[in-house]
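Office hours follow-up: a student asked to see two folded examples consecutively, so here they are.
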Amino acid sequence: MLSTVRFSGLVLGTALSASITVQAQDYLPILQYHHVSASSPASTSVTPEQFMEHMDYLKSSGFQVVDLRSALDDLKANKPLPDKAVAISFDDAYQSIYQAGFPILKERNFPFTVFINTEPVERNSSSFLTWAQMKEMQANGGVFANHTVNHPYMLRKESGESDGDWLARMEKEVDTVEALLVKHLGHSPKMLAYPYGESDRQIRTMMKEKDIIAFGQQSGVVSADSDFENLPRFPAAGSYANLSTLKTKLDAKPMPLLSEKTGGDYATDQPVSIQLTFKEGKYRFKDLTCYVSGQGKATLDWVSDVEVVATADKPFGVGRGRINCTMPDESGQHYYWYSNVWIRSSPEQGYVSEKS
């Protein structure tokens, strides 16, 4: 595949007043699916008709569907991606991916990645993929990656479990799948999707030490500046399956941030806040909007020309809560996009301490 580089505003010598612009892309939106079925839970599903609509839109609109791991390697190395590059991913090894999703992908020659939890695969559950099906899909653009063995809440300890035993159990969840991928499919792409999107500093450090790229469930666009142990993806199922809103996400850019301060992975009984510091540039700061899940718009306090603090009005309830921020670019045709997730735990859930 040929890729080109953008040299925006490059002037060669003093005699040339024109600029040379060659299209390329230094960021990647990634779509996240689960079921492709009309009979599975609506919150994590697209119907086959919806999935075909999404894929047809990608093809007709000139999107270049790329292999996820290869594209991430290029971004990390500051190599350009094709213009309108996008990647497709699925979480969980559901049989509907093979039955309804794979034929659509194969017909369009679209590469895709499936993050598999191997326990139901190994016990031959009729609702999950078989290794033979995965081999067939692998021969037609499919890549299979790590979603742990048992799909646990990775930050929850079992009753009576020490912090050390918990971390060892999580390492086994990861290593077992890596070994099974190599055994049955010949290799591992060294990528993992956190079950429920949950991770903390210890888990992300484990991923970094194992040289595994990992994904959360916050929305956003990947760039070379992203945290490659906690990458964003755009959910494209359930309430997010509407094509008109999906178009906006496919055209999104990464928020041009120099730094962020989130206060950690866990929310408390106080409203969360996040401080964002922007890179130098010409941005439409007056149009920046941050939304708190279940609460509406966050309060924005600008502490300098390039620093803003977004604060929720109320504490989160138990579970996961988000702040999503968007801002139109200068052209008004794209949105910069950023999201952060916090966990509000309760004592009976057994979450590992943030300080441990």
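And the second, which I mentioned at the end of office hours:
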Amino acid sequence: MIEIQNVTKEFPGKTAVKDLTLEVENGKIFGFLGPNGAGKSTTIKMLTGILPVEEGRIAINGFDISKHPLKAKQLIGYVPDRSDVFLRLKGIEYLNFIADVYQVPTKVRKEKIEYLTKSFGIYEDLNDHILTYSHGMRQKIVVSGVLLHDPEVWILDEPLTGLDPKSSYTLKEMMREHANKGNIVFFSTHVLEVVEQLCDEVAIINNGHIEFRGNMTDMKQQFKDDDNLEKLFLELTQDE
């Protein structure tokens, strides 16, 4: 379970997140939506321990991200919204480095690397430097690295950006399979059709506050029956 309790995050001249409370149960694909500047990325960065939690509490499966950061982070697989990291490493070097960090045994990592990179169509490119990869290939190598240690909680920030249709479909299938095993997939996206297809629950954040939280049926019942998600999203965030 992800628990966010009364979290506030302030930057000079701005309150990015204000008294935010949100819980995500196991077995869910949870969509986290919001316009630019709404507090979405700030929340994700606190959830993953990149930004400190200065007011409130965040816990991953019972481990407080501030008090037990290593234990909490071991449970997380995080795909950031930027994939231009470790560019001077070869693909296989990067994946082995990530496997070393999470102490993935040699036999297991070999099988996982082969499975993931073949699934995303980059197996033949592992001996090339990441610097030579296209944006989509970089996204695939980052996603492969994140999934190597089989984390219980996936936190994905715009994970489908740059992926070709086949790889996008593969990742969406993996997300569904992961949630069906009783785990959590928490992801942000601007692709509203994906939200309608995948999400068990949705939260929309705007101006640092949660404007809506529920499933797609709840959302559509709250508004006009003939409205699609894009219209609902625009209505919920019209005060941006």
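Two things to take away from it. The mean pLDDT is 89. The radius of gyration is 18 Å.
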